[in-house]
Amino acid sequence: MILEEWIRQMEKIFDVVKVFDNKRINIRTFYLSGRADMWWETVRTTFQTPEATLASFTEVLRAKLYPMHMQKIETKGVPNLEIRKYVCNGIHK
Known about the structure:
single chain, mainly alpha, 6 helices, 68% helix, 0% strand, globular
């Protein structure tokens, strides 16, 4: 699951360099590209409020870039290059 790997890698970096939670959304969005970056432009104001949390951002990001039906296909062990292309198109590694 490419998106999950990207999320974990970002968290590792944030923990090592001691990035505060209130900065993690902004830094993550810097690495979005393509469809994900275009999506971010449409929801940016939603996540630039004091009520926005990293957990809510991650949940919405997963729903947008890795919908449940695609998660089910991959967890069944079905090799599907389209899933990887779909997810990779939205994030930088």
